[in-house]
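User: Write out your own:

AI:
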Amino acid sequence: MDTKISILFYARKASTTTDNLLPIYLRVTINGQRFETSTKRYLEANKWSVESGKAKGNTDEARGINAYLDMLKQKVYNLQKCSSRKVNHSF
């Protein structure tokens, strides 16, 4: 059975902090089932790219946030890969 997985990072404007920072959220969809969680990272609205789902620019802040988001994405793929192996071995 093929598993369809989608990973999206987005800044939630409705949850802006008092410092005008947007929290960055992770949304994982697996076969239509959605899961969302905070990444515990915050960014100014003008520094977020909606199209790419990453921080804009080449500053240390942007590179750090983007590296963290890439690491989270890889963890999700590794967990999905591990769980699909367990399902395949049970048959």
Q: What stands out?
A: The first strand starts at residue 5 and ends at 11.
